[in-house]
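Narrative summary of target 7.
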Amino acid sequence: MNEARERILDAALRLIGEHGVGALTNRRVASAAGVSLGTLTYHFGSQTDLLRECLDRFVDAEIDRITRAALTLAGAGLSPAQAADEVQRAIVAFADGPEQIAHLELHLQAARDPGLRPAAERSITAYDRLATSILTALGISRPELHAPTIVTLLYGLAVRRLATGDAAATGTAEALRTVLTGVLASTDR
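Modeled conformation, tokenized:
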């Protein structure tokens, strides 16, 4: 990818995380990226194009990161309780920086801007697939049915963690253990 385009995307994502989507202007992004306004508009014809690519890029990187973690967990032969602890550790290791806030901001912006919805849907679908693969590795039956619950729980916990400044992701493992215990109990019937 073009170096200027990379700098623009990095700057936009950082600015969204620091100031919100509403504060994003072409001039602000160009300045933060160290490019001319013309370079920005050459690469991105609209704010929706810029926001969509920011979300797509973040999701691609996040999917790669989480896939590596999921493969590690799947191969470790962990119990659901141990997997919940590992998920909390992984969140703590990654939860630093404005990108996490920007990711949630972009999802909220997709509720307002239909042009962003395909990228947001791709993100959520990817997280559902990853949750399904982890639940499968844990031996949970009908994992595709339960994956959206896990993803929704983690999104909610992310909002809580970011809103309170809880860098330790307190309660994440316990919340996951509670849900996994319930899922396991419902599939034993």
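The mean pLDDT is 87.
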